[in-house]
Amino acid sequence: MATKVVMEALSPTMEEGRLVEWKMAEGAKVSVGDVLAEVETDKAIMELVARVDGTLLKHLVPAGSTVPVADPVGIIGEPGEDISGGSEGGGSSEGSDISEGSGGGDVGEGSGGGEAVDVAVAAPLPGGRVKASPLARRMAEEQGIDLSSVTGSGPGGRIVKRDLAGVAHARPGAAPVTATGGFEDIPLSLMRKTIAKRLVESIGPVPTFYLTVEIDMERTWDAREALKLLGPDGKVSFNDIIIKATALALKQHPECNAWWQGDAIRQWYEVHLGMAVAIDGGLITPVIRHADQKSLREISAEARVLAEKARERKLMPEEYTGATFTVSNLGAFGIDHFTAIINPPEAGILAIGGITQRPVVVDGELVVRRRMPLTMSCDHRVIDGAMGAAFLQTLRAYLENPLAMVW
Amino acid sequence: MTSLLTVNLGCRDYGAVLALQRDLCQARLHGEADSDVLLLVEHPDVITLGRGTKPSSLPHDSSALRRLGYQVHEIERGGDVTYHGPGQLVGYPVLDLRQHREDLHWYLRQLEAVLIDVLAVFDVPGERVAGSTGVWTQGRKIASIGIHVKQWVTFHGFALNVTTDLSRFESIVPCGIDGVVMTSIAHELGSDHARPTLWSEAVTAVVDAMGRTFDRDATLVPLETLPQFGFTRV
């Protein structure tokens, strides 16, 4: 079984290392602890040692190359072992098994290491099986792609990763998880990967934490009353105003307008706001696209139509997928305060409680104000406490001073 | 607190001290000794080429440098070319980072902190330059760092210019940084503040700062006593 030798992290702040010199030639027999190569980061040289016994079958990178942490640099295996699939696996991010601490980065059987010894299948397999690399197989399974519908470009027509690129969203019968518009994929730093891994271990697949604020809604209340004077056209719900404010705040805090992508954080340039709507037997979240660019009047009209269609179960898939963030409001259901569950891959959701008159102290005096509790659930892999808090501060500023929304 | 055995070697040849470092490192790797060691030394004129040496950093080839009276060593530390010579205080910490922190960047920053503390003793403001390991003062480079780590045991280290003849750097492009201006503590203090005790004050300051920064009891010991601490290869 071939094992990849990866660029080890010699410091949590190390992003890449320069492979200065190979100490072992291709074909050399190596034992655990043998120095394979020297790696430089900053002005420190550290030795990359073998974690398994075997033969150094291949240098995947030449001396002098700068290699990201956890990327493969070589392969150790048995002499004569077929490693033809190695370069493909090597170029992908799937082998990036980083063990913390010792920086040991060997990839064993059953994980990405399989890719390194993948042998092209010579003839079609019985039972109509399709020839595909293990990586392609796994990607297809995750994305619901039928491999029999894909044309392979690998050796002998074998399906490899690149063949799936064009059909990634062709899953039949399932709603594609897409949002329209531009975005930026931010590669995960080693620290980000470690945060993600540790938090998931602790709390589950989406490591969530909660931030709660109580917002003074007096001015928003007054603004809404003022709009009512315009006649039926001016009738907007608090939720419409909250959606508008949330979209504007997200525009200012793109780090919260993001998806967890497993190997990257996708920060969306546009804000597509999902709004949870209770329907018979469940709930659904229609999406107000480009909510940050729409007027309160447009948002209000669109929200009304979407909610109506939701209750009648007439929403089209593109109307309830691709949200970049979601708002859930149970204020109208008499709920004082609650927490909402994140809708992956989104990184956050707001749970809006009811507006009630409460005694609060303002400028040293006890007064009665209309207050609204609000709790944000944050995927900690994407949003840190301070990031979420900054976003909520902006949101509070809009809701406590609604004139700022039209500024 | 565990100790940091500190040996002041005085003036010694580069090659001999390199062999000593490797022996100390091996003893640590094989578990024969469990104390951190700091070697302090002053080398005769020598130019060392680190793993990152660029051809452009050496205006003269190695044989020409030898004719100019420099020893030349190609070595395993990180970094580009550097010069060591009289008046430069060189420190080689042999530490097991597994007992500190398995983090090379942390270690480099700690060494910089040590050197900045030492400079503060002389009222010389030391600073880091992001992306350029070493210590600088007002844009001039006063101390260089280059290390090698073998399974988390460190060797090589730092070189602090105390009274170094700065013209000796002119035969090379120090650290491969074009246009870098080298300086020394004596140069920064100016001739009006020349101190006959500068060297010994610098040695004391380095020992103090190393102990404080790495949380070790820095004790000066003679070289001959190292075998008593398990360094029997010495």
Walk me through the structure.
The complex is a heterodimer of chains A (407) and B (234). Chain A is an alpha+beta fold and 407 residues long. Chain A folds into three domains: 3-116, RNA polymerase II/Efflux pump adaptor protein, barrel-sandwich hybrid domain (OB fold (Dihydrolipoamide Acetyltransferase, E2P)); 126-167, E3-binding domain (Dihydrolipoamide Transferase); 183-406, Chloramphenicol acetyltransferase-like domain (Chloramphenicol Acetyltransferase), CATH 3.30.559.10. Helix content of chain A is 24%, strand content 26%. In chain A, strand 19 and strand 20 form a beta hairpin. In chain A, helix 7 (238-252) crosses helix 8 and helix 7 packs across helix 9 (385-400). Chain B is an alpha/beta fold and 234 residues long. Chain B has one domain: BirA Bifunctional Protein, domain 2 (2-Layer Sandwich). Chain B is 26% helix and 29% strand. Chain B has helices spanning 14-29, 62-67, 104-121, 185-189, 198-213; strands spanning 3-11, 36-42, 46-49, 71-74, 81-84, 88-94, 127-129, 132-137, 140-150, 153-161, 217-220. Chain B has an eight-stranded mixed β-sheet with strand order 7-8-9-10-6-2-1-11. In chain B, strands 4-3-5 form a three-stranded mixed β-sheet. Chain A binds chain B through residues 10-14, 18, 20-21, 33, 38, 40-47, 49, 101-103, and chain B through 50-52, 76-79, 102-108, 133-134, 145-151.
